[in-house]
Amino acid sequence: MPSPSRRTVLATGSALGGALFAGGLPAQATAADRPGGTGGTADPWRTVLDDADLVWQRMPATWYEGPFLGNGFLGSGVYAEPGSETRAVRFNVQHSEVQDHRPEFGSLFGLARLPIGYFTLEPVGTITAVDWRLGLHDAELTGTLTTDRGTLTVRALVHTSRSLLAVEVTPSAGERGFRWVFHPADAISPRAAFKPLPDGYQGNPPPEVDEHDGVHVCVQPLLSDGQHVTAWRETERGGPRTLYAHVAHSYPRTTALGAALRAVRDGSLLPYDALAVTHRAWWHAYYRKSFLSLPDARIQRFYWIQLYKVASAARRDAPVMATSGPWLEPTPWPNTWWNLNVQLEYWLIHGSNHLELDAVTRALGEFRDNLAKEVAAPYRSDSLGIPRTTDPHLVNGAAGTLTGYGVGIPGQDPPTPEVGNLTWALHNVWLSYRHTMDESVLRDVLYPLLRKAINYYLHFLQPGPDGRLHLPTTFSPEYGGNSRDCNYDLMLLTWGCRTLLESAEVLGIDDELAPCWQEVLARRVSYPTDENGFMIGADIPFAKSHRHYSHLLAVYPLYELTGRTPEERALIEKSLAHWVGFEGALQGYTFTGAASMSALLGKGEDALKYLGELMARFIQANTMYKESGPVIETPLSAAQSLHDMVCQSWGGIVRVFPALPAAWADVTVHGFRTQGAFLLSAVRRGGMTRWVRLVSEAGAPCVVRHGLPGAIEVRDGRGRPLRYETVDDGTIRIPLCKGESALVTAKGDRPDLTVAPVTPNGTAPRWGLPA
Known about the structure:
With 771 residues, the protein is an alpha+beta fold.
């Protein structure tokens, strides 16, 4: 029998209560043990991450159950080979840049992401047991396959910068004859398994398999010109054998072959351990940008898995995440979706302090010229739009259709003039600006694009008999039917005009359109409501089960309506209850939206209840999510719902622990990024906030609702008293310059400023497939 593996030691030895980090909380905290602590590792990140590792002691059968590896480009999901569950394990090979390039067939066929293929690890014997661990800290899969002929010890990673799948297998004597086999996929849109093919559409030619000086290649030519190539090589160094694989895509040139060969030749010169050094270093630094611990062990583990997942699926220079991230599977949605999915996928990067993953701001800025082509020709000189679906370059493919554009014309185009998607996507860009206060984001991307997105609305906004400004019929995503004064569009139009005016003031721009934006805010029709709350629009009540909160965007995430008055709060509560009260069409992100709206209202118990519904109904064994096909936005947005319970910073106020349930008496947060570019650290113990610390990165106005009871005092980074102004009960304004910090405590209190993982309320099973 082999000696106990490292993963076994970690599985039995982690202790949440014993990992601490100490001191005055610099931007990068240092690890230390508190005297009298309960032992365990000195590194708090290592403690929570090791505790969150996914384990498999049963063989995963599907994408929804197995381990997943990725770096925003190359992705691999691991599970049993369907139909050969005891004979082979599949390592998928997919890539977020690999797509077709035939726009005449639209974004879901002609521009769709294309499946690449997969390797099977085929033992000599019959698989009898599996013992795997996906280690979050190192972003590696480790473990063993046991067969009736011996064992295969496996280590696998997708290298963070080389985009190389490396799988090291150490066989026992009886398994030395194991093999790897590559299975190319048909290069056809995955939607073909769900919907009829467009007239004239055909799949791409068969791939060409070859060998170049010991490197195997599978070259997939494309009918549109260009190619994608999978290259791989297996090397043996003593007992272990290591598979190295890389995918390259080129269009319209055929340069992918050379790129793939170089990547594999260079990468395979390094043994697995050498590759792992730089890979692990990136991931260790990544996690240390923020910290969150709460007493619900299952949810805390889920949260850290989402941080792993988002960095496996997203990078700033990678394509904006498609519906299934880099892990493409058969799906009716084989591209990027802009009427909810993209927005939800990226929300958690702000609070968790991971703006290095912000592909949305980068892509909208880089490919803005394509957005003009998505509106009808008469509007292209001054307007932009984004249709429901695009490829990574923001191309929809409608330019080759009879209409010649992707975004419909309000009041004219049947069936779905879905106009608001670009404005909603730009709200994500605005969040990136607000969380960094980087004016280049405002000046170079948000302002010019939002100006033209709102301009498209202004072409159609007209006064009615009541003297108010009205929108002709547009479409509220997914509800069905067009309506005048659609709330989806009115709410986004309102946010857009307000944001343009505020941005122009920040940038010092005297914009000739400012009077138009002011007139919209003063004269636009009220949001349509009835006895049940917000309607879909003036012509359509909310009267059936509907998973999408398109009619509630002013509440969340726009925070245009927040319950400032009793009447407004009652309207929000009524609308929320009516929305989730219809069973039948509710999906996972229904409950993440409901959780965040409840958090806005300070209802922590309700927020936790909705997250519980999500976990019980929809979240799969490996924390993935499915509807008609694999999609990843919902688990990622659940992490944002947790953020909304722990901290909110809309409206210029940082709210600390605004919506915690009673069961979460202890919570620790560190390095949490808020609007205004503050880094928040705070500790709650025994149901009371003990201290709050804010570090200002930009010198923005600092207003904090700290939540400490009774009299307080505020000190700077050297422990000296700081002036502050009381705004209202529990809210203070602190004058902080760039680089300065403020510590808020109870008056006369000198609490221990050590930040540690909190003790869980109870036991919970690990994610994955534990025994």
